[in-house]
Amino acid sequence: MVCRFLVFRMADEKEILKFCIKEGFFLDRAMLEFFVGLGKDRVGEVIEEMKSLGVGEKILTLEVFDKYKNRLQVAGCRLQDDAVGKGGVEVLDYISSNSGKIEAGDFVSYFRARFDVLRDILIAKGLGDSFSSIRRIGNTSGVYSVIGMVYSKRITKNKNLLIEIEDLTGRTIVLVNRENRALFERAKSLLLDDVVLFRVSGSSKMLFASDFIYPDASLEKEKFGSKDEYVVFSSDFHVGSKNFLEGNLMRFISWLNGDVGDDRQRMLAKKVKYLILSGDNIEGVGVYPGQEKVLAIKGCRDQYNKLAGILGRIRKDVEIVICPGQHDAVWVGEPQPVIMAKWGGDLCEMKNLKMISNPGMIKIDGLNFLVYYGGSFNKFIDEIPSLRRSQVAGRRSQEGEGGRCPTRVVQEILKRRHLAPTYGNMDIVLNKDRDDLILRELPDIIVSGGQHRAEVKSYNNILMISGSCWQSVTPFEESIGSKPDPCKVPILNLKSREVKILDFSNEEIRWVKDDDLVCKLGVGNEDCH
After folding, report:
1. Rg from Cα positions in the chain
2. What three-state secondary structure class fits 166?
3. How many whole angstroms separate alpha carbon 279 and alpha carbon 256?
4. Residue 100 neighbours by CB distance under 10 Å
5. How deeply is 256 buried, as exposed, middle or buried, from its count of CB atoms within 10 A (0-12, 13-18, 19+)?
6. Are 361 and 321 a contacting pair, CB within 8 Å?
7. Against a cut of 0.85, is the pTM above it?
8. Residue 404: what pLDDT?
9. How crowded is residue 357: how many other Cβ atoms within 10 Å of its Cβ?
C-alpha cells in the first residue's frame, strides 16, 4: 500500500511540475509539496488565476504565493482555507469556470443528468405509483404514471393542450382536455424541459392526463439559528450608473454602523452581523446598447473600486457576501463564477468579504442560504400566464404593485427544483457532467435580486427573500413600463426567523408597512403583514 501511494504521489508531482512549466512557472520543493496537497484539478485553477493576475515571478515559492493568495478566485477572493470556516459564513458550494470543447454528445449528457436527478427526486417522494417508462406503454389502454421531460406543447384545433414528453426510452403525446378546467389552467404553466410526473390513461397512440406532479421543494420543518443576530439582504447597487442612489445607500451604511435611526433601529443595527448582496453590484459596461449614456463611471475596475470604498465604511465585524449578476464583470450565462480579482481590485482585498458564484450556497448559524441573482426570472414571467398577467397589471397600476413578483417566480422555481428549466430561454454555461442549476440540496432560505423589489414570503417552510435596489428609474425601465421600488432592506433574525423591512428612501428611516412587520413562516404561504 505504501509503495502504491508513493507511485501515485510521484506521478502527481511529475504531472504538476510538467503542467506548471508549460504554463511558464517553476516550483521550489515547498511549493510543489503544497500543490500536491491541493490536488491536480485545483492546481490548474490556481495557475489560471495567477496568470490572470499578471504574476511576474517565474519561480513560485510559498512566499510568492502568500503575496497573492488573498486575491485568488478559486473560492471567492481567496483559497478555500480562507473562504470557508473563518467567521460565521461557510461557503458550501461555488461554481468555478467550465472549460473545454463542447460537443453534441455533451448536450445529451447534460439533459440526461438533469432527467436522472429530477426523476429520482419524484420517485423518492413515495407517491405509491408503479412508474412506467414510455417504451413499456403498449397498444392496450391502461392507467399509467410516467415521468417525462416536456419536449413541446401546443393548443389543438379543439382548444385542448397537446404535450409531447420524452424519457430515456422514447417520446409520446399527452393530451390535457380543456373541459378539465383546473388541470388545463395548471398545465398551461408547464415549461419546455420541465421534468414532471404525469398520471395518464390510454395507450401508446395517445395518453390522456388526469394529473401531473412537479418535483417540488419542501422541508419538513423550519430551521432556526441559535443566535439573536441579524442578516441584511440587498441587491442591485448599480454603482457607476448616473441613476445610482448613493446618498440613500450611504444612509443605509450609516444605519449599519449605528450612527442614524431611532433607538430601536440603532439597537437592531448593532445585532446585524451579515450582509448578503445578490448581484448587479455595479452598472457594468456594454451590458446593453447605448449604456454609455447612463454611466457616471466608465470602467468596471473603477466601479468596483468605488463599491469597495462604500462597503469599506461598514464596521468590520459585519461579514459581507457578494454574488455576481448580469451587470457584473463576469460572463452573462449562468451559472456565473465569482468576480475575478483582475476586475474586482480593491473589493477583493477586503478581509470581511467573501465572493461566491451565482448561484452559490452558504451556511450561517446552521441555516443554508441559496443566493441567486435571478437571471431567469423574466423568462418565467414571460412564459407563465399568471405571472405575465401580474406583470401587465402592475405596469398599468399607478403604484406598480404586482408588476414585479420575485417571490412568486421563486415559488415556481421551487416547484420545479430548477433555476432555469427551459434551455435556450437564457444563456446557460453547459457543464458536461451535471446540471448546476438543479436544486439538489434544499436551502432554508433562498435569496434573490434582479427584480428591484423587496419581498418576503414562505413556501413549504422555505423562506424566500428578494432584495431591493439602489437605482432610480432608468430610461430603459421607463421604456418598458417597469417600476422599481428602491432602498428597501429586508432584515432576518436568525433565531426567530422574523423578517422586518426598513425603508431608506427618505431622510427618516421608516419601517415598511408597520412597526411590527413579521413574516409568519409557520402558516402556509402567508405574506408579511
Report:
1. 25
2. strand
3. 20
4. 7
5. buried
6. no
7. no
8. 67
9. 26
